[in-house]
Amino acid sequence: MHKASSLSELGFNAGTASSGFFRPVADDSPPTPSAAHRRLTKVSVIGAGNVGMAIAQTILTQNLADEIALVDALPDKLRGEALDLQHAAAFLPRVRIVSDTDAAVTRNSDLVVITAGARQIPGETRLNLLQRNVALYRKIVPPVAEHSPEALLLVVSNPVDVLTYVAWKLSGFPASRVIGSGTNLDSSRFRFLIAEHLDVNAQDVQAYMVGEHGDSSVAIWSSISVGGMPAFKSLRDSHLNFDEEALEGIRRAVVGGAYEVIGLKGYTSWAIGYSVASLAASLLRDQRRVHPVSVLASGFHGISDGHDVFLSLPARLGRAGILGVAEMDLTEAEAAQLRRSAKTLWENCQLLGL
Amino acid sequence: MMSMKKEASSLSELGFDVNFGAGFFRQVPSSVCDNGEGTQRQRRPTKVSVIGAGDVGMAIAQTILTQGLADEIALVDADAGRVRGEMLDLQHAAAFLPRVRIVAGTDVLALTRGSDLAIVTLPGARPVGHRGVELLRKNVAVLREVVPAVAEGSPESLLLVVSNPVDVLAYAAWKLSGFPASRVIGSGTNLDSSRLRRLLADHLGVGAQDVHAYMVGEHGGSAVALWSSISVGGMPVLSYLQKTHASFDGEALEGIRRAVVGGACEVIGLKGYASWAIGYSVASLARSLLRDQRRVHPVSVLAKGFIPGDDHQVFLSLPARLGRGGVLGVAAELELTADEESTLRRSAETLWEHCQALGI
Description:
The complex is a heterodimer.
Chain A (H helix, E strand, L loop, with lengths): L41 E5 L3 H12 L5 E5 L3 H12 L9 E5 L10 E4 L11 H22 L4 E4 L4 H12 L6 E3 L3 H15 L6 E6 L7 E9 L2 E2 L1 H6 L6 H22 L4 H15 L4 E8 L13 E9 L2 E5 L6 H19 L4
Helix pairs in contact in A: 1-8, 3-4, 5-7
Chain B lengths: L19 H5 L22 E5 L3 H12 L5 E5 L3 H12 L9 E5 L2 H5 L4 E4 L8 H25 L4 E4 L4 H12 L6 E3 L3 H15 L6 E2 L2 E2 L7 E2 L5 E2 L2 E2 L1 H7 L5 H12 L1 H9 L4 H15 L4 E8 L12 E9 L2 E5 L7 H20 L3
């Protein structure tokens, strides 16, 4: 049921410059070559599932790109999603939306967001799932890197820290241009819980979750600051029966947040969409904002220089990618947790043969 | 499999004193200059309720949230678990958005109370044949439950219906709400018009926002494109289209019209449902209404008296000026061809039959 998607398919001639609906000004000099124009901003999203489309749609609504390319293995789903965005043309600034199962459509991207990932088969081991994802990335990443050798790569698929490492290895890009969405969203959930409790705007709560995205993420209590005040001591004093368990309860509520949404609606989409759009804005608009994202962490907090692991640390993001990573003051326990995660991640990465 | 236990959703549930905030930030001392007038009457926050948290409802809610159109959003759905999940998924983005209060549940009256705008989305894609009659009956039954509750809790609200067949359902919602017709709108041909404008815009190499074109009438296969009034850059487009066609005739325009009205079906056929475009379309209507923009949109309104030769009390799409008070006015000086007029009259007849059969 392929419907006509242009007037030329329906027999109408696209007008030439001289006989068209709009005519160029009389001008003796040749037109400025298009190479002289500053290129338009192009974002590609690999994977047109719930996560990929929430990201693409939020980026579109927030007007962060002039061109959006969608790639997926399922051609009908892909075309349907692209059309669904294109149909909104009258309600948005003009954005070119293209899609194809072939990664060539991502050529000349400024930012490529990778959400593609294999779904866990019941009973499948984590390692097996990981190996299937590596196989998928072997198909996706090298062509993407070839078509956009200067692009920033933003990995969202899980397990994000390992897959960011995989994308880095397969792309051949400098580590400053390969980022994982990491604990950016976990930190938002963390800030939301604290903000509700303090009745302040979540944007005024500074609080970081770092480390391995997922069950072993680390909440940096000392980093919580609101209105210029460190909040940890006051939070502690406000607890009826404060102990380690109270803090662990908060951390678990944050980590469990994603599972709860998945249990209720089947998947998460909106929050990760906003999270990634926020990263995209900082990167594409050179905002120099600090986000906790998955970066090459070797050499930080006692993680061995030779262990090329990615995990989340607060990082300054801009047009060139990761401009710098915060040297946080961690407690010995927090640093030890990071090192433990790094060890496990390194062991996993070594099994992948990259 | 991860257990589906309910996670703590607040620090007070985890044992932290709920009055903590009172100490962390302290209020300024009461001023001796307090003139005793009491608290100023604060402007109420803008509240939008979305009834139906499916793909369409959530695309609408999320777009409204991203565009900063509401201070409070209520999500209502019969599926308590799903709507709670959707609420959490939006709340988790708190660090990336201005502060918006988001509530969710199954109780229409309690959740939607005090809405400025209530948007109703109901199950089902475009109805086909007799399946359409079944769907209509089911959806009217849902409206009978939902609309009176909305009207009771938000007697001043604007009501926007986004389900198909939208013209009949907008009529039903109007009757069931007891609201003046100026406060009840169906999303109508607003999105079809966007599709038409995009097709023409791509052809002419302009932005779609500069293509002034309206699809009107009965939303669906019989929608009418007002060809003679399409203009771009102050120029009428129709004669240009005629000149540039390989072998122009009525069929050429009909080809465009069919491509437009078939757009939703095509998306549904490819991805299983349509969501993003209707989300943007409705957010655009929400903005014009809530921010009193006085913009003209083709939406389903009470069309009685606007179609020459027709006097039926039916809803169908006409260009309408929208603002905080709802439908501020409907285009009264449209120049319709004889064919366009007769199509609209026919649509009005058919719609009237459907409306009468509802027994409302």
